[in-house]
Design goal:
The protein is 45% helix and 15% strand. A three-stranded parallel sheet has the order 1-2-3. The chain has a two-stranded antiparallel sheet with strand order 4-5.
Length: 176
């Protein structure tokens, strides 16, 4: 992973990965800025005010820097989780249902950000049950069924009807 052995060089691999689970996993009782400072401190990253403000600016939350996260929408929390990732500057993003709970504007914003991340040389792996924007930005499509890769193909080789048909076929087979 990233040119490192995942077992012997786990720390180097971990340093290059950014993860956002299905939930944003931010601290509701902290402000947006405090969430970022906490993450930076835990990760041994610089936590200077300019860096934290820039990370919030990257996700269009700078005007909410001192607001308690409990007042944020789901989309704002998701963007704050992305700001946490930007502090570490990972080369690979692992995202679980990243578009879940976002409105159309938030979905478009996230798709644009992920495309820019890819264009800058980053890699994105998305786990999803959805066939919307996730497929628009995908280069490859893998369908997992029964704990195994049932299909792995370039996205351009498939039409949107193909994706739904193949997903249904492979997941139904796994359920039998």
């Amino acid at each position: 992973v990233l040119g490192h052995d995942g077992v012997r060089e786990a720390e180097a691999v971990r340093a290059g990965l950014g993860l956002i689970a299905h939930g944003a996993h931010v601290y509701d009782d902290l402000t947006a800025r405090e969430n970022l400072r906490f993450r930076a401190t835990l990760g041994g990253l610089p936590a200077d005010p300019e860096r934290l403000t820039a990370a919030l600016g990257d996700v269009a939350l700078e005007r909410y820097a001192d607001a308690r996260v409990r007042t944020f929408s789901v989309g704002m929390k998701r963007r704050l989780a992305l700001a946490r990732l930007s502090l570490a500057r990972p080369r690979v993003l692992l995202l679980d249902e990243p578009f879940a709970g976002l409105d159309q504007r938030g979905r478009k914003w996230l798709a644009t950000r992920l495309e820019a991340f890819k264009a800058a040389g980053g890699a994105v792996l998305i786990a999803t049950h959805s066939f919307g924007r996730e497929l628009e930005i995908a280069d490859r499509l893998a369908i997992l069924a029964g704990g195994r890769v049932a299909l792995d193909t370039p996205r351009a080789a498939l039409g949107s009807d193909d994706v739904q048909r193949l997903y249904a076929a492979h997941t139904e087979e796994a359920a039998l």
